Amino acid sequence: MVKFEKYLQASDFFDYNKSRVKNKALEITKNREQKLDKIRALFYWVRDEIKYNMMSYVPEIKANFKASVTLRRGYGFCVSKAILLSTLARAVKIPARIHLADIINHKISQKVIDFMGTNVMYYHGYSEIFLDDKWLKLAPVFDKNTAQKAGFLPLVDFDENNDAMFSKYDNEGNLFVEYVEDHGVYDFLPLEEIKEEFQNQYGTLFDSGLNLKPIEDKKITYKGD
Length: 225
What we know:
The protein is an alpha+beta fold and about 220 residues long. It has a single domain (about 1-200), classed as C8orf32 fold (Roll). Helices cover about 30% and strands about 20% of the residues. It has helices at about 20-30, 35-50, 65-75, 80-90, 110-115, 145-150, 190-200, and strands spanning about 50, 75, 95-105, 120-130, 135-140, 175-185. The strands form two sheets. A four-stranded antiparallel beta sheet has the order 5-4-3-6. A two-stranded parallel sheet has the order 1-2. Helix 3 links the parallel strand 1 (about 50) and strand 2.
């Protein structure tokens, strides 16, 4: 297990050293002896109990990425939910990390595209958890209510034999999600790297005192903290 040591450590963002986080991991996995069952339980808990909120993805606010903060708030975005899932896994001694990539979600509204100034979601994040001698990719991003409300279907479901990732096509056969650039895997959060990319790609979006106006899109909740 020596080679996995860095994927088991608590840190500033993966902060299962906080009793709230450690206790939640133990609560979710209670009476589950098999690693597979623990991972499945953690995945569905983070997917559905932590509501999706795009507007909290503000790299300038460090707390937005901490597992303990996401747990307390009850909402998060792709990267913060991935960090939380990986942190809960580490808390029960399962190696976990995050993976970052740029994606295009073809189901988002024009209002969201106009807000971002692009249809590319830079530095999207998901978890990777080690199971049966391989890294399993898990994307617990959209909770069930958000996915159904916004038409982000099919839902990402846990599959012990395959990665639980966004489908390329939706239930009607239309393009759903494309992974356009891979940034690799991390045992830590490369926050400065994300900040720089957001500044390059999203310009001055976060420069007005970090007070972003909610996007008026009734399909999905995009609200600030």
